[in-house]
Amino acid sequence: MKLFGLDIKNPFKKQALKNVDYNALSNFTNTFYDGDKFYGGFGPTKSEILDYWTLRRRSAQLFNENLYARGIIRRLITNEINTGLTPETRPDESIIGLPEDSLVDWSENVENRYAIWGKNPKLCDWNHRATFGAIQRTARTEALVGGDVLVVLHQSPMTLLPKVQLIRGERVRTPLFSESSSLKVGHRIKHGVELDLTNRVIAHWVTQDDGTSKRVLAFGPRSGRRISWLVYGTDKRLDDIRGTPLLSICLQSLKEIDRYRDSTQRKVALASTLAIFMKKTEDKMGTLPLTGGAVRREKAHVTGGNPTGTDRTFNIAKQIPGLVLEELQHGEEPVGFNHNTDVNFGPFEQMIVQGIAWGNEMPPEILMLSFSSNYSASQAATNEFKIYLNRIWMEFGDDMCNPVYVEWLLSETLTQKIESPGLLEAWRDPMQYDVFGAWIATDWYGSIKPSIDVVKQAKGSKLLVDEGWSTNAREARITTGTKFSQNIKRLKRENELKVEAMRPLVEFQAEFAMTQPAQPTQQLDAPDAKANDKIIDIVKDNLDDILEDQINTLRVVN
Asked: Which one, of 203, 202, 214, 149, lies nearest residue 176 by Cα?
């Protein structure tokens, strides 16, 4: 087989070149594709080594000094965590081996007891200062500003329930060689995290106030229960051990836009000190009111000029503030100073903030709290942010909240405060991973953003429930942030109160109809007949609505 006159099977064989097509050979060029459209187009390729210490320090500095950085973090915390993520337990009875809907009351009891634990700082906080919702906000803030935060669980000797301790990520650092010399064979410490031969996290080394380091295990050596783990603020690469701050990608941009803002503000402040200046059009000596010996009179004395003929004195300083010039030289004209601000700062600020929002998966409308009057555009921005929030709720719930919930559930089951048949056996037996996973299955939800059009959303939710595409519990959670089970119980009581309130009116209507003489309707005056019919229609409509609500409530409860 030959190509362009060369024998491909034996390329090293001496061959005649008389049949070679040199034009075809000239079209082949050896090259390497490295992303450049032309040589040097991409620029120098960097081999980056993350300086976590500098990134954390700079991010913390911006968070304390830069209003844009503080605004980004606070807006995310308010929307992502708000008052704290709440659990919705959903144990699978079919996998556990229990009858269907037999754990409905169990889920209600677990959620209520977990809420009681999370609302008491002495039960959930190692420092006895914050509720679990506040702990979540602090953990998320530290993770976003510092890149990651270390969560440590302690067991209370009084209640045997877990307590949460948060440690800044900057304190998780590689210790001195003398302190880490007792490592097992094959273990290594990378950025304060101890790893084994399989790169699994074994422990975290925390720097103490006196400069020494303390080794905090990731799991208990005998029980295998969770003790410490890192919660990250942003996504990271596969082999990265530590997280990077959210602001790391826009540190310089935030710093420069803050300098531009301060420069514009100082320019306006300095310009405001000069109210007017004298404009001269002729080459003559000026007035020079400040340095030319001009006199500013505080008072003016007027002789006569009134019906009584007495002299009067006026306080000029109080009636005419500032410098008063009674006469100007020829060719002088007072001109006001132009105090216009930098007209380009507004568009520049908006452009930079939009880029920062886009880089952090936030719609600019959400970050700047500036919504358009267009309903479709505002709804689209809100929907995009809801997609982001759903992902954050899942990730933060799995990373931060779920391990705490699992340890709390195990503690409550061990102390026999909650009856969970088979949970402890499945936890100790690796072969029953499915049963244990069915017991601890939980979804985490945050604060629900109010709908722009409640009527449209309510109609859509009703359609989803009617068609079986969603449930009342799910729609109540994502629409109003409440629990359907609690709503339906309260609604039942409210309907009973409505029936009791309408009962005297119905009895009065019946008694009024019995005492009236039997007269044809056409003999009544037209206004009286219409008023009577209107009252009857109102009573009937109210009764029908109340009875229908009561029947629906009884159906749902039963």
From this structure: 214
Q: What is the pLDDT of residues 255-308, one digit of tens each?
A: 888 888 888 888 777 777 766 666 777 776 666 655 554 455 556 565 655 555
CB 106 within 8 A of CB 129: no
Q: Which residues lie across from 172 on neighbouring strands?
A: 206
Q: Which residues contact 497 (CB under 8 A, 6 or more apart)?
A: none
Q: 406-454: per-residue pLDDT in tens?
A: 999 999 999 999 999 999 999 999 999 999 999 999 999 887 766 666 7
Q: Which residues contact 58 (CB under 8 A, 6 or more apart)?
A: 247, 248, 251
Token look-up 């844009």 returns 68
Which residue is associated with the tokens 């302190």? Answer: 179
> Rounded to whole angstroms, what are the CA distances from 445 to 83, 105, 166, 231, 392?
11, 20, 22, 18, 10
Residue pLDDT, tens place only, 128-147: 999 999 999 999 999 999 99
Farthest-apart Cα atoms in the chain, separation: 136
Looking at the DSSP bridge assignments, the partners of residue 195 are 188, 201
Characterise 288 by phi-psi region: left (phi > 0), alpha (psi -120 to 50), beta (else): left
3-class DSSP state for residue 534?
helix
Distance CA 370, CA 388 (A): 19
| CA 265 to centroid of chain Cα atoms | 30
Tokens of 448: 């629900």
3-state secondary structure of 531: helix
Supply the Cα-derived Rg of the chain in whole angstroms. 39
Cα 380 to chain centroid distance, Å, stands at 18
In the structure encoding, which two tokens stand for residue 45, read together? 């390729």
Give 245's contacts (C-beta < 8 A, 6+ positions apart): 55, 56, 59, 144, 145, 146, 147, 233, 234
**Cβ atoms of 84 and 136 closer than 8 Å:** yes
